[in-house]
DNA sequence: AATTGTAGTGCAACGGAAGTGCATTTATTG
DNA sequence: CAATAAATGCACTTCCGTTGCACTACAATT
């Protein structure tokens, strides 16, 4: 609990009750989280608050956004000390076509790509799709 | 004109007037196309028709869908003989943060990635974002 | 050529998800 | 405590993708 408050404060996010709950919820999840997930988990709270919490978290580097190709924005907590802005720090994501869950593969960085003359890369997104660990074990 | 009809027929798509026009429009474009682009280009035609044309094209392997992270689905013609379904045939895409256009880099295949035990990849999407050739030349 | 069936097109409406303006509540600080 | 700033809640909007159903054009069949 205290660690969460500290983590948020460190990142310049005021640790309100709601924010701590959302952080906790995300920390306990092994998969990337969509706004609707949080909405379902905290039915009493207003969507807007949850939405803005995610945006604040993102902006302050508490979470990173994940575009897994489903058309729904997902989010996951950043590693401590991660620097999502840096191109090197970008890891790949895996989306399971079976259970529909998306996970961070933080160990797997996006390889360097040689671009044609004139192209300057600032950011990258690599998503693999297929069958996840859990689903293939069954 | 005749080539377009042939191409469509080959792929099991009946070459209606509208479809030929849309194909032509996409062939003349150097960048990936969104539904709204086509909508603007063919204001007389109905959205639904254009939408379904794209879906038909996609399903029959005439175009491939591109998720460039903007939240808007884009499409581009497939290379002749391309096999989008095959994992090896997947090329990367580049989205320009300046002009907002997305291009296929068909020469640049997505590199092979070692996944952790249990994960089976069936598909992949790699998008680089930054400044494109045209924009960096100015 | 008329009939029948199928595929394509148009209109209208729906639904999910992201986002915004503004009022209200809660926290901070002097 | 008053004054101020930040967070939350409600209502409403926009954008995009999608679907149901009616209508039309086309192709095959008799
Ligand atoms: Mn991640
Ligand atoms: Mn492409
Ligand atoms: Zn799975
Ligand atoms: Zn550009």
From TrEMBL, chains A, B:
It comes from the Bacteria. Binds 1 zinc ion per subunit. This is Fur family transcriptional regulator, ferric uptake regulator. GO terms for molecular function: DNA-binding transcription factor activity; transcription cis-regulatory region binding; zinc ion binding. Zn(2+) binds at residues 96, 99, 132, 135. Gene3D superfamilies: 3.30.1490.190, Winged helix-like DNA-binding domain superfamily/Winged helix DNA-binding domain (1.10.10.10). Keywords: DNA-binding, Metal-binding, Repressor, Transcription, Transcription regulation, Zinc. The lineage of its organism: Bacteria, Pseudomonadati, Bacteroidota, Flavobacteriia, Flavobacteriales. Belongs to the Fur family. Coiled coil: none annotated. One of its GO terms (biological process) is regulation of secondary metabolite biosynthetic process. SUPFAM superfamilies: Winged helix' DNA-binding domain. Its cofactor is Zn(2+).
């Amino acid at each position: 609990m205290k660690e969460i408050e500290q983590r948020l404060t460190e990142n310049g996010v005021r640790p309100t009750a709601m924010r701590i709950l959302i952080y906790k919820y995300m920390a306990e999840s092994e998969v990337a989280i969509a706004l609707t997930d949080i909405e379902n988990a905290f039915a009493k709270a207003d969507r807007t608050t949850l939405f803005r919490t995610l945006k604040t978290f993102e902006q302050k580097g508490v979470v990173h956004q994940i575009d897994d190709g489903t058309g729904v924005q997902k989010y996951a907590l950043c590693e401590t000390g991660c620097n999502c802005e840096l191109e090197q720090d970008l890891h790949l994501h895996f989306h399971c076509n079976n259970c529909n869950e998306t996970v961070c593969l933080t160990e797997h960085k996006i390889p360097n790509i040689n671009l044609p003359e004139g192209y300057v890369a600032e950011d990258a997104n690599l998503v693999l799709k297929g069958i996840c660990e859990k689903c293939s074990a069954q």
